[in-house]
Amino acid sequence: MSFLFAQPEMLGAAATDLASIGSAISTANAAAAAATTRVLAAGADEVSAAVAPLFSGHAQTYQALNTRGGGFPPQNGGNPSRSTRGDLSKPQSPQP
Fold first, then answer.
1. 44 within some domain
2. CA gap 72, 25 in Å, rounded
3. Segment Disordered: which positions (predicted)?
4. From residue 37, how far is each of 1, 14, 88 by CA, in Å?
5. Global pTM value
6. φ and ψ at 90, to 5 degrees?
7. What does the CA dihedral 19, 27, 65, 84 come to, rounded to 10 degrees?
8. Who contacts 40 (Cβ-Cβ below 8 Å, separation ≥6)?
9. Is 52 a domain residue?
10. What would the pLDDT profile of 43-92 be if each residue is shown by its tens digit?
């Protein structure tokens, strides 16, 4: 039988750090949205003209998925710090 020992305070701190990272990524996504979804052709040639809308399309798809909830960190029903502390405050029975 395996045992896992965890310190609720450390897990709570890690969850808070994860939320901070998620906030920073969301801010960066918002800042980059305009520049990445409207890519201009790098040159006057036909390859540049064909590639620019392709990159813009990928960026628009990414932003749409991110807006619909595919962002970071994945949400499991609320504040990860609060749910971690709540789950670890109760004794857990071993699972087979």
1. yes
2. 7
3. 65-96
4. 52, 33, 43
5. 0.52
6. -105, 145
7. 0
8. 52
9. yes
10. 999 999 999 999 999 999 988 888 877 556 555 544 544 554 455 555 55
